[in-house]
Amino acid sequence: MARITFIQSDGTERVVEAEPGMTVMEAAVKNSVPGIAAECGGACACATCHVYVEEAWREATGQPEQMEEDMLDFAFDVRPSSRLSCQIKVTDALDGLVVRIPDKQF
Amino acid sequence: MSDDVIKTDAVIVGAGPVGLFAVFELGLVDIKAQVIDILDRAGGQCAELYPEKPIYDIPGLTVVTGQELTDRLMEQIKPFGAEFHFSQRVESLERLDGGFRLVTDMGARLECKVVVIAAGGGSFTPKRPPLPGIERYEDISVFYSVRKMENFRGRDVLVVGGGDSALDWTLNLAPVAKSLTLLHRRGEFRAAPDSVRKMFDLVEKGDISFKLGQVTELHGADGKLTSVTVKAPDGTSFEQKTEVMLPFFGLTMKLGPVADWGINLHENLIPVDTAKFETSEKGIFAIGDINTYPGKLKLILSGFHEAALMAQQAYHYVYPDKKLIFQYTTSSSSLQKKLGVK
Q1: pLDDT at A40
Q2: Would you list which residues of chain A are within 8 Å, Cβ to Cβ, of chain B?
Q3: How remote is the C-alpha of B111 from its chain's centroid?
Q4: What is each CA distance from B320 to A3, A8, B7, B16, in whole angstroms?
Q5: Taking 90 as the threshold, does the pLDDT of residue A66 lie above it?
Q6: Tens digits of residue pLDDT in B230-246
Q7: B224 half-sphere exposure, CB direction, 13 A CA radius
Q8: Using alpha carbons only, how large is chain B's radius of gyration in Å?
Q9: pTM (2 decimals)?
Q10: C-beta neighbour count of B201 within 10 angstroms
Q11: Domain parsing of chain B, residue ranges
């Protein structure tokens, strides 16, 4: 199990437990974390599960692949720490991961 | 645009997999259908979101892509000759004596005995950047689509985005606009390489400019844009003067006018009964992702089942005096004749 902290734009925090193998988006949706729309259901086709990975976790979560980087063009307020949470696979190494949810997903 | 009213048995709203299979199930019981969709082609989410993504839970097909499934369904429904009305959205639905009239935003008018709403997650509409106050500029100086190029003649135009829509409109509007600037968050594009090459050619010739950054604020008054604030990749901000902004950030699904058709809704979904898949309004059915009932699963295969049962009830509205006899395609010569295999 990995514990993931989701921080809303108003500062509200939610910690959820995620099983290795699922995606950060799935962990959010399964636990009804608001702000992760995930319209396409995790196919990297909509950019509505956009998150900002906290600085300390950027190396562990890695860089977006080409498809994800392309899809981030459809997100709002993209920053260097931007990721689509459906493309971050949970592993034991991500126990303690902190991501911030943008104010709006569009 | 046409003044002619199209008369048919059934109008299907939505050309996704479930809407397409509804053509098949209705066709088997001699109900002719017309199909309307906001996209410019069949397939719905399968075409727009997952054309190349694999689907593993269509019975009998180990794996199929969204596009392949769409193509196969189009092939399967061919014998029934349904007519398609693409790139339009049903704006209004009104009840007539013994049927319905639907009018699309392109002015098409259709009259039918039954309506089948297979609109999935709603109609695909352009994403609106969540910039403060953007709604005040919409349709005056902020546009999410180009209906008439002439509206942009002699104006300062800012196109935002890096996909095909952004690039296509950059190329098309460049000769029309007084000035044109393309703004994108990075130097790479997901658009067709040929369009990107043409765009850079225009930049080199000095016909248009290309800038890196993302819009953070809009400035102007009474809906008239004068400039926007742009955050550059290095974190600095600059002002970009413009009269018009065209943001292209892809599509999202919105329920749209369905909400105004007098049908009971529950959390943006249409409650139906599980015997007929009929809505609170007699003669209006809802199948696929847009409906809800106890145990509902948003699966394509569930939508197919719903289409089959819907057609049984629809038959009674289209042929009130006839009795429907259940038949199998495997053994019924009359069904096989309709399918053109006999």
Answers
A1: 86
A2: 39-40, 43, 45-48, 69-78, 103-104, 106
A3: 21
A4: 60, 56, 18, 29
A5: yes
A6: 999 999 999 999 999 99
A7: 5
A8: 23
A9: 0.84
A10: 12
A11: 5-125+252-338, 134-249
User: CB of B28 within 8 A of CB of B338?
Assistant: yes
Domain-wise residue ranges, chain A: 2-100
> For chain B, how many helices (H) and strands (E)?
7, 22
Pairing of strands B54-55, B64-65: antiparallel
Chain B residues closer than 8 Å to A76 by CB: 129-130, 214, 249
Interface pTM, i.e. ipTM: 0.91
Nearest by Cα to B46 from B129, B121, B112, B116: B121
H-helix or E-strand spanning residue B236 = none
Residues in chain B: 342
More confident residue, B214 or A44: B214
Domains B5-125+252-338 and B134-249 share a fold: yes
pLDDT digits (tens, 9 = 90+) for A27-52: 999 999 999 988 888 888 889 999 99
User: Which of B52, B53, B57, B230 is the best substitution to test chain A (most A C-beta atoms within 10 A)?
Assistant: B53
Torsional sign, CA B228, A46, B75, B86: negative
Give the C-alpha separation, B286 to B30, whole Å: 20
Residues of A in contact with B129 (CB under 8 A): 76, 106
Could you tell me how far CA B170 lies from the centroid of its own chain?
A: 23
Q: How far is CA B246 from CA B72, B184, B190, B280, in A?
A: 36, 12, 17, 40
Fold (topology level) of A2-100: Ubiquitin-like (UB roll) (3.10.20)
The pLDDT assigned to B3 comes to 65
Tokens standing for residue B179? 């000035």
Tokens 């989410």 identify what position? B45
pLDDT at B85: 97
On whether the B5-125+252-338 domain is CATH 3.40.190.150, my answer is no
Assess whether pLDDT exceeds 90 at residue B58. yes
Burial of residue B176, with CB atoms counted within 10 A of its CB: 0-12 exposed, 13-18 middle, 19 or more buried: middle
> H or E stretch including B266?
none
Gap between the Cα atoms of B137 and B142, Å rounded: 5
> Coil, strand or helix: which one is B161?
coil
Is the model's pLDDT at B52 over the cut of 90?
Answer: no
CATH of domain B134-249: 3.50.50.60
